[in-house]
TrEMBL record:
Protein family: Belongs to the cation transport ATPase (P-type) (TC 3.A.3) family. Type IB subfamily.
Name of the protein in question: Copper-exporting P-type ATPase
Species assigned in the record: Marinobacter zhejiangensis
Domain of life from the UniProt record: Bacteria
Location(s), subcellular: Cell membrane
Length: 291
């Protein structure tokens, strides 16, 4: 395409809230044949809320106080949900010291001489915690597309919290548009398989990579590139930045983190996945006009 037609394309995209920050991104967008979507904040709104509280000893407010005591030190969207719930229920967060975040796993800290951990099944089981008493609650939470988070005091499980995030109203339709354009769509998430499957089926995705550690997201992008795909990555989080940079075209959600926006060639100002399909259509039209 000529510089003039690219300028026209970039202007057209801007009308759709699709901000093209790197010159070659518009021309590359039309060649994409695989779109990899992050889950939280990309397919979903990114403002999760606590939906379930189940304490082994029946003390839900103590469970929430301990969980909030840990999470008030964290900036993860899951943490915000738990702190907000404690606030709404007027539950005072426990005074946790020595906070540590384990990326893609959970959070830990010290309370009354013991170690508290809040995180996913795999991580707590690695610490030797038996979660079988909560299997039923876990199933219920993940089947409803929520994320189960287990709380343990040393090796003893205290309960489980369910945190769920609403799917953006137009995600399903936008993904259908990509499929109709002949593009493969994959979802990548750090969340567990059952939760990932529940979200994916609601938006029409059958290609899912779950329990992906933050540092492995970019590896999936480069793997698919090596297999010959022209890969788009769409994400909002700090965790997504290396994958956004590794993709042929990175799309950052406009309300996402600054790191994600700086790592991506394109910013979706409206936060909608329709912007990805818009960019691809405009790119294809721009290149077609020239030849
Ligand atoms: P995503 O790909 O959904 O953004 P992350 O890689 O940030 O996921 O996290 C993956 C999983 O690690 C979460 O689903 C959760 O189980 C656990 N986790 C991460 N951060 C926290 C936290 N602050 N509190 C509890 N669990 C967490
Ligand atoms: Mg995200």
């Amino acid at each position: 395409a000529t510089p003039m037609s690219v300028m026209v394309g970039v202007g057209k995209a801007a009308e759709y809230g699709v901000l093209i920050r790197q010159g070659d991104a518009l021309q590359n967008a039309g060649k994409l044949d695989l779109v990899i979507l992050d889950k939280t904040g990309t397919i979903t709104e990114g403002h999760p809320a606590v939906t379930d509280l189940e304490a082994c000893q029946g003390d839900e407010s103590q469970l929430l106080a301990l969980a909030a005591g840990l999470e008030r030190h964290s900036e993860h969207p899951l943490a915000e949900a738990i702190v907000a719930r404690a606030d709404a229920d007027r539950v005072v967060p426990a005074n946790v010291s020595g906070f540590e975040a384990s990326s893609g796993k959970g959070v830990s800290g010290q309370f009354e001489g013991a170690t508290l951990r809040l995180g996913n099944r795999r991580w707590l089981e690695q610490q030797g915690v038996d979660l079988s008493p909560l299997a039923e609650a876990e199933r219920r939470i993940s089947a409803n597309a929520g994320t189960p988070l287990f709380l343990a005091r040393d090796q003893q499980v205290l309960g489980v919290l369910g945190v769920a995030d609403a799917i953006k109203a137009d995600s399903r339709e936008a993904i259908q548009r990509l499929h109709d354009a002949g593009i493969r769509v994959m979802m990548v998430t750090g969340d567990v398989e059952a939760t990932a499957n529940a979200i994916a089926s609601q938006v029409g995705i059958d290609d899912i990579r779950s329990e992906v550690l933050p540092e492995d997201k970019a590896g999936i992008v480069t793997d698919m590139s090596r297999q010959g795909f022209r890969v788009a990555m769409v994400g909002d989080g700090i965790n997504d930045a290396p994958a956004l940079a590794a993709a042929d075209v990175g799309f950052a959600i406009g309300t996402g983190t600054d790191v994600a926006i700086e790592s991506a060639a394109i910013t979706l100002m409206r936060g909608s996945l329709h912007g990805v399909a818009d960019a691809i259509e405009i790119s294809r039209a721009t290149v077609r006009n020239i030849h």
